[in-house]
Amino acid sequence: MGENQRESREGGRERPAQRRKKGQGPALASSLSGHLDAKQAATQVARQCLEQLARRGGGGGGGGDACDVAFMFFSRHHVEAARDLIRVVRGELRPRTLVSVSAEAVIGGEAELERQPGVSLLAMSLPGVRTKAFKVEELPGPLIDAENVPEERLRRIGHEAGFDEDHRGTILLADPFSVPVVTMLPVLMRARDVCVAFDPHAQDGNARPRRRTPIFGGMASAAGRAGGNVLALNDSIFTSGGVGVSFSGAMRIDTVLSQGCRPIGQPMVITGGKGQLITHLGGRPVLHVLSELLDSLEEDVKEQVRKGLFLGRAISEYKDRFGRDDFLIRNIVGVEQSMGAIAVGDLLRIGQTVQFHVRDRKTASEDLAMLLDAQQLHDRPAGGVLFTCNGRGTRLFEKPNHDAAMIARAFAPENPAMSAGPMKAKMGREMAPSAAALGEGTEPSETNGPGGPMPLAGFFAAGEIGPIGDEVFLHGQTACLGLFRGAE
Fold it and tell me: Are 364 and 403 in contact (CB under 8 A)?
């Protein structure tokens, strides 16, 4: 089967991929609306994305071939109107695959709409890329006990999840009340590794182990109870379960995971404890170790500790030195005085290396900036998707739009002005210029034209899914950014 005739899956049906110009890279578009009326908001974001895709060579003009995949994120204010949102976006944009999820707050361009209505849309035109959408509950199960899943079942899971030899990454969105993500992720990682173990396109002609492809995403956050969230795949709407989209072929997906913590003290080995409890570190009672550490800190660091103390678990035990990216950060949830133990929000074992960490707005900002700087070594992305914790935003930072604005600055074009000042929203609020879907009379060239801000959409999640090293975890208090680039 030729490349232009390869098939992509849409909610269980196979549809032929559209024809594109040879060598054309991915084209992405994003738009954000704060309109109180759901249909108006959906119309605005869909039409803006369609126009942007047309300018970027992704089709458009109402022909129905502009958009391969679209992600729509909408605030809790629009949950009851979810079917209207989906109907409008599918009618206007005509994406081959549409994935939707409800959230506490949404992100678009440089703006983060917190505690107000919002609809954010990311539209993707992907020449030479195959996509496969799947529902988590339809994967061959059960998705638990990763070590004992037979390889045959792992291959079936991988096939249904779109893990093939050209796999480039998977976005996973789930309801936190019905999907056991912590036990599911190890199974998905093993299925990925079984199906995507070697690079068949090595230049020397010999297949070799390849870079592990990312699995990332976020948990629906519009509701604090079971059945209150909404997820959708194309026209199918559900209030439990999860949905994923896998990408294969001519693209590269990089992830940036900012945990926003910095270490204090020294790495130590767990020498006593069980499950979530640690009783001894480095052969000494953990409460003695912690007391000595606190006494040694400067007053400003002690203030950070009072706001929250965290424990980082080393991902790999085979390093002589550890840095920020080497630890999985978990909350210290309490102290068990009778046992002389601390309780951690993770299952730990004797022999693991851990280190205490602190987090504050300054550290979180510096951590994200450092990780974004590292991305400057690569080509400018065609666009990105951001899953940030609902404990960030103005709950953590002094000013709004922190994560989105920092990402926009990091990938700003060199010459054109990023913006021409705030614009009035259609409903009267002031918005960042990249949220131009809100404004009447705004010229497309002012915002997301080819030389304008990088397309970005996302939402505030009730848990973020992202990789550290070769493993994938469910996180809290993090910002997980996926960046889409053309194939190298």
Answer: no
- Find where tokens 């604090």 sit: 224
Find where tokens 């050209």 sit: 166
pLDDT digits (tens, 9 = 90+) for 182-198: 999 999 999 999 998 76
Return the amino acid letter for 187: V
Which residue is listed with tokens 């600055």? Answer: 409
Q: What is the mean pLDDT of residues 447-474?
A: 86
Q: What is the DSSP letter of 426?
A: T
Cα pseudo-dihedral 92, 94, 99, 103, rounded to 10: -10
Number of H helices, E strands in the chain: 8, 31
Q: Kindly report, residue by residue over 324-345, the tens digit of the pLDDT.
A: 678 999 999 999 888 999 999 9
Residue pointed to by tokens 């606190």: 294
- 101, 175 contact by CB (below 8 A): no
Beta strands in 137-206 (DSSP E): 167-174, 198-199
Query: What would the two tokens of residue 413 be?
Result: 């074009």
Structure tokens at 133: 């959408």
Strands 97-103 and 69-75: parallel
Report residue 381 CA to chain centroid gap: 15
205, two tokens: 């002609």
From 483, 247, 441, 268, select the one nearest 357 (Cα to Cα).
268
